Amino acid sequence: MFNYESSPFAFWITRNSEPNAQPLFDTRITSLPPTPTLPVIPDDDSTALDSFQMIFEDRYLQLASALPLGTHIYGLGEVLSSSGIRRDIGTNGGKGTIMPMWARDAPDPIDENIYGAHPMYLEHRYNAASKRSQSHGVFLFSSAASDILLLTPPSSNVSLIEYRMVGGTLDFYFFSGPTPQKVIEQYGELVGLPAWQPAWAFGFHLCRWGEKTINGTIRHLEKMREANIPLEVMWNDIDLYDAYRDFTVDPVSFPAEEVRAFVRELASNHQYYIPIVDAAIPAQTSSADVYDPYTRGVELDVFMKNWDGAEYIGQVWPGYTVYPDWFAENAQKYWTEALSNWSNSGVEFSGIWLDMNEAASFCDGSCGTDADLSDTTLPFIIPGEPGNLIFRYPEGYNPDISGPSGNVTINGSLTYGVGANTTVSIERKDIVHMLGWDAVQVAPHAIDHEESSDETTVGPVKNPMLTKDGHSAADEGDLNLNAPPYAIHNGNGRLSHLILATNAAHAGGFIELDTHNLWGLMEEKATYHALKHIRPGKRPFIIGRSTFPSAGKYTGHWLGDNFSKWAFMYYSIQGVLQFQLFQIPFVGADTCGFNDNVNEELCNRWMQLSAFLPFYRNHNQRGAISQEPYRWDSVADASRKAISVRYSMLPYWYTLFANASLFGTPPVRALFWEFPDEPELFEVDRQYLIGSDILITPVLLPNVSTVQGIFPGRGRVTWRDWYTHDAIEVPAGGIATLSAPLGHINIHVRDGSAILLHAQPAYTITETRQGPYSLLVSQADNGYAFGTAYIDDGESLPPTDSKTLEFRATKHSLKILARGSFNVKERLETVTILGVAEPTTVTVQGKQVRSWDFIGARKKLVLHDLGLSLNDGASISWK
């Protein structure tokens, strides 16, 4: 319910069912005392921030809402947060949060803005008296540069959230929940539901920056097969290109015909290929240097402009560059042509990897119209070259003792740390200390407002646009678009530093200052539609770096240029949970880390963790030691085991993602999303749930052989070990110490669940899907269990015929219900039912059978050799 006062204007939002309860959002807070530690507008209007009143000025909007002390806020990203998944609101000595909304290229700093901008949060309020919780969500639909602050003013009985925007509009949406899952689903109804992923996307992906030849790429393929480590998708980084130019191949190292033969060999083995596409298009250096993607872009007039109408020049890997303008009339035509021509030339890709699409540039803003386009020298030394060699290793690893190979085992013994089988406790504050981030604060607010030589001042306030001939379309005031009067807490300082200049012009009169956060989304949308044209009827597969609300309709996401540190393995969980909120569920980190050298133990643990996150790719930096999973025997063994379990779970993963695409339901979940009335779970981000039924408890510390895990449900839920099916004995308080030797990741199954599995995990997804099914039923104490499975052909868009299965168990029976016209050829061969008393007879489809076993210690009934069709349902009973 929307409520308001007209003078002075203020509004507040309440639930229709609880109009007199504490508002969900309340701007009636102008009487709060001023907070002098907050940043102010560095101009004549600075006194406007002495209170938390609404402000509507040219290039500055401000609005604040009260929050209950101690409430729980999640979202507001993209960010790696030192406070965990719950955002700091300044209580209990915390400094609060300042979250800038400004996409930038930065290698995963902590507590700063990075690749995407998502001004959406979920608030979870717990009533200690009733011991019940309710959730709601708030979304500011704006691409404007902004700060969002969470803080608690001195001597105040409330906390607050404050929005400070450099333009744009205050366009708010509220989601009433009342559960965390409902909030996420309601947000998806607004911004759009996630794209359908092809089944093969859930396989293991492998990439390396610094792969010098196509033969080197082929060698990885061969070594993975020799080690029997499943590999679904092979990727190439910018090494593929000729002179780092998009839509090319190096004629010496990656000849087009050899690339074509390689990709077709992959396809013949049910494997796939993904190349990279960088955001920037190389500028043609001379008339003799004909580069078709540039000349065609000029012909179609699709590149961004300077304020004076000249081409906007940036700098990325190939040297000086131009940038597609996604507002241009012919932008989609241009992009589809470029990708089609590349595919036809031999790079017959299965999907596309979109990098650097914030969009990034190595210049501070515009490189200038007088740049020497023939100069391809980069302003830094590429990693791995003399002067920029990679010497850093994970926390605790000593290369002087163990050598530069990353090995942690010599003759079977660990060679560093506090000793094998010794548990080390590292808290979040210790992780921050290990990485040298003790003094990390939010980015400095003080910004140099002096103009650089290539900046221009225009009057953009009412209509900050430029006409097609490059002249100013506004006629009031003077404003430096590259340094607005209010400087947000951008981690790079100046808004235009290492990205596009904010006074760059788009078609239609738009400027980069107002549209910057949309750049990655618009490229992802254009790529999605191009892939639909190139591969008609097939689901486009895209992984992008910069995202904005609704990007999940088109793309998945990887968590950027992380580090080979134990801390960043932990941060990958936080990142995946964050993007479930943002309706971009197909997400994962560069497994084993991108920057720096990894070691054997960290890569072992990380390959296992990522096997139970949606997007599963190993990728690392040029010049670092190799980290393909076949490099170490222990990592190869851990990878085979984890991937086998992952592939057996594919029907479950696939169903979760079908539900995400149909309803917006998050596939990966924080524990409190499923158990919202258990406050001890509100900050847990070292464990997570896959769906509602599978609990993952990874090892996130070096040199340990046990891990502590909390088991939700407060004793009312039975959790069973995935591997042994034993029920876990949870002490009072719900925390148990679990055995976790190197190569083992703890997985537990919730009671009341029924999970369809692949019975015979194979080397590829296609081969796995062609094998038989099994069913795991974990009954609650009363015999209840329920589950669903969604099955289709795994690639069609829109999805063709499908089959939805329901599994319903009672104390003495299991019924399988089927609906839908898809023909499931594979049979259900095995059913395992946990939590049953020993039966004397078992019947299947009304007929008594003898092909079953019972293991009394585990209350486990296993039916073999069933050969049941899943097209018409089935019935099983026992007594």
Automatic annotation (TrEMBL):
Residues 664-755 form the Glycosyl hydrolase family 31 C-terminal domain. One of its GO terms (biological process) is carbohydrate metabolic process. Pfam families: Glyco_hydro_31_2nd, Glyco_hydro_31_3rd. Keywords: Glycoprotein, Glycosidase, Hydrolase. The keyword Glycoprotein applies. It comes from the Eukaryota. GO terms for molecular function: carbohydrate binding; hydrolase activity, hydrolyzing O-glycosyl compounds. The keyword Manganese does not apply. Residues 194-656 form the Glycoside hydrolase family 31 TIM barrel domain. Belongs to the glycosyl hydrolase 31 family. This is Uncharacterized protein. It comes from Hermanssonia centrifuga. The lineage of its organism: Eukaryota, Fungi, Dikarya, Basidiomycota, Agaricomycotina.
